[in-house]
């Protein structure tokens, strides 16, 4: 690839995690990027402040991009989590993140405010360069709602009527955005009815630390390890310390599915109003919470392909593989998608090869994302297991581990152990290495073959 070849022009729909991560990574590979975001300001105007949990595979990407100080300066670094059985908040054990695992993964477990993570990514994506004429251009347009995606012309139309055309379009527009919708419709499937509610809803809210520390009975939520999991029957909850302020994030899985909300709207009911058979401490914590959001957990339609038929349009992040809301890996996987797509495109400026590179992205990223999503579903199942035989076996194994001084999840040969092993594999992954592996094994050879025929 020669530096004199013109850069590719990418249009990215959505300035959230996957969109901004893709913008940073493509800029690093010296392509031009236009990001279109429907909200008028970064993160939207009506969102109750939420928490992004970024495991080591995600934070490693931020660190590699030179954003260690910004990330660590805004995040709480989680070292462990404590597990309780509801409704009595019976302590079952502790899981400490193995330092060897973290060092292998080259990252930390960072809990950071969603808005702070967006800000860090946005500032990096749009950072002016000292070598203005040498660097690619990244622009982010707010209030730019995409209403139509035209694959054939590689263009998008905004609500304002404005049309933007590029060499390729990346849909980072979430589970209900226009690019994902266009791909669903291309399969002759109705996007309004293709997702199936599981009957479970996730409510989340934030409790100011200052309000919680007045209540000694809430100490388990604000003292070490500042991260808890409450396993109930057909319900569950978890808490984490949010950002440097150490406010408390509270997430509750409930079978109450009367409302289908979203991240950008305050839920109709307060968190405390949906807690019935819950521990008094959780109820007290919830009574101190600010506005809540609620998102139904759904089995989302599985796209036949993440890439349009003509190969010029692709979806990434939640638009490609929607995860359950507040899933442990949803942020890191969105960052991985961005890092992979940027890295793989460091190897070409050839417009003709875009479909091949987009298909390489799907070929490599899809199996990993599907595997992680299955693990996420198993986490929720594990936390909300109905009282009965399986729940008793789970609790006995956890308690025995704790009594033996082991991590609560480590039961050799068990499902729990499989999840721990899978987590190790998930944390160790590096999207840049994965992208380079495709390039070395396939992409580079096609490059040489093409050069030989020219
Ligand atoms: C405002 C907001 C707040 C969130 N807060 C939390 C939280 O506190 N905790 C948590 O666990 N998860 C939260 N999420 C979800 C979280 O961001 C995702 O689960 C994931 O980590 C990142 O997904 P993503 O970047 O692929 O898509 P998303 O984060 O879903 O972002 C999609 C982006 O596309 C934009 N978009 C959609 N349609 C259009 C259109 N027609 N034209 C232009 N732009 C469009 C959206 O406005 C949004 O910025 C939030 C999402 C949003 C949008």
Automatic annotation (TrEMBL):
UniProt-recorded Gene Ontology molecular function terms: monooxygenase activity
Gene3D superfamilies the record matches: FAD/NAD(P)-binding domain (3.50.50.60)
Domain of life: Eukaryota
InterPro entries: FAD-dep_Monooxygenase_BioMet (IPR050493), FAD/NAD-bd_sf (IPR036188)
Pfam families: NAD_binding_8
Keywords per UniProt: Monooxygenase, Oxidoreductase
Entry similarity comment: Belongs to the paxM FAD-dependent monooxygenase family.
Protein's name in the database: FAD-binding domain-containing protein
